[in-house]
Write a structure and sequence with these properties.
Blueprint: H1 41-50, H2 55-71, H3 76-83, H4 87-94, H5 102-112, H6 116-128, H7 146-155, E1 158-163, H8 174-184, H9 190-203, E2 215-221, H10 223-226, H11 232-245, E3 251-256, H12 265-268, E4 271-275, E5 278-279, E6 282-283, E7 288-293, E8 296-300, H13 303-319, H14 323-337
Parallel strand pairs: 1-2, 2-3
Antiparallel strand pairs: 1-4, 4-7, 5-6, 7-8
Helix pairs in contact: 2-5, 2-6, 3-4, 5-6, 8-9, 11-14
Length: 339
């Protein structure tokens, strides 16, 4: 029988079997009424009170402006010509890639024929798009474009995560993370390397934070347990850490064994499906699929894409070991590492 998990050094947590769930409470505001499906009072409270940084507000504002443009039957090219902007700028705004000044929001609302009430509401939202998250303090240690991912990660209510080759970033020890980062960037200065390791460790606070703690369902290819990263001591500590994390009530770690044979993860590669808190009858943000490769990251949010990756996750979930047998395999892999 496996022994008790060691207490994590970072923050407090609840072990499986203990009822200490945290319910997101958003203060109510008067529901915003308009001829489009903009934020309700509850949703606005969520944006104001529970997100860190500007990622979610940027995505929301961009989506609402895209809806307005569509209702006005304007193409991106026509809107850009009216505003005397580039088409690229319109695209970056609508996809949440950039903050937006209130004056620019007002100009877009004007050519789209938005009401005064809608315009004022979106101008207020635009101010949130310029706020910086805690990760901006790490400066150049944050890779280009990675702030968008961290902002989404901070706002999730749950993640369905499949990894094929490496321990997920949120589950990595500092020594394991250091090996991965140095391998990916062989010439990285030591101070930047250390900052990136610390950034990764800081992201892990969401696993044990007191409020709005997300649920993480992770499926790991067995190869992750077997592939040595760094020396034996690095892997031993990493496997111990995985075993500890599997005891959190909001974290599920299951292994897809070699014996599972062919499965969807062999075709998809690593990915995660990110879900956001429900406010009323729908999520505050549409689900997002995130994948990462050698040359960058990809965010997918079309319903057909979400459905395909969700189906792949369910396929692998049906082939994975249960939590108990996964923990036993993690401990067995640790034993086999020792000479």
């Amino acid at each position: 029988m496996a022994g008790p998990a060691r207490k994590l050094s970072r923050g407090s947590f609840t072990r499986k079997g203990h009822n200490n769930s945290v319910v997101l409470q958003a203060g109510r505001r008067n529901t915003f009424t308009a001829n489009a499906s903009y934020l309700t009072g509850e949703e606005w409270a969520y944006v104001r009170e529970t997100t860190t940084g500007s990622t979610v507000p940027r995505r929301q504002l961009g989506r609402y402006l895209r809806e307005l443009r569509g209702r006005a039957r304007l193409t991106v090219r026509a809107a850009a010509a009216e505003l005397e902007w580039s088409e690229t700028k319109i695209w970056r705004i609508e996809t949440g890639q950039t903050p937006l000044r209130s004056l620019d929001t007002e100009a877009m609302c004007k050519i789209y024929g938005a009401s005064e009430e809608v315009t004022e509401y979106l101008k207020t939202l635009s101010k949130k798009t310029r706020e910086q998250g805690w990760w901006h303090a790490y400066g150049e240690a944050v890779p280009d474009g990675f702030g968008l991912y961290i902002g989404l990660e901070e706002a999730v209510s749950s993640i369905d995560w499949y990894e094929s080759d490496l321990v997920p970033g949120l589950f990595q020890t500092e020594d394991y993370a250091r090996q991965i980062i140095r391998s990916h960037h062989p010439r990285i200065p030591e101070d930047v390397l250390q900052s990136r390791v610390e950034l990764r460790a800081s992201r892990q606070n969401l696993l044990t934070r007191v409020t709005a703690r997300p649920t993480i369902s992770a499926l790991l290819n067995e190869a992750i347990l077997r592939r040595p990263i760094g020396d034996m001591s690095v892997m031993l500590r990493q496997l111990d850490h995985l075993a500890d994390l599997s005891q959190l009530d909001t974290v599920t770690v299951r292994v897809v064994p070699f014996a599972a044979g062919m499965h969807q993860g062999l075709l998809s590669g690593p990915f995660m499906v990110m879900h956001f808190p429900e406010l009323g009858s729908r999520e505050s943000e549409p689900p997002v699929v995130h994948t990462e490769g050698l040359v960058g990251e990809l965010f997918l949010d079309k319903p057909s894409e979400i459905a395909r990756y969700s189906a792949a996750f369910q396929d692998m979930s049906g082939r994975a070991l249960d939590e108990r047998d996964s923990l036993l395999l993690i401990r067995q892999a640790k034993k086999e590492l020792r000479p």
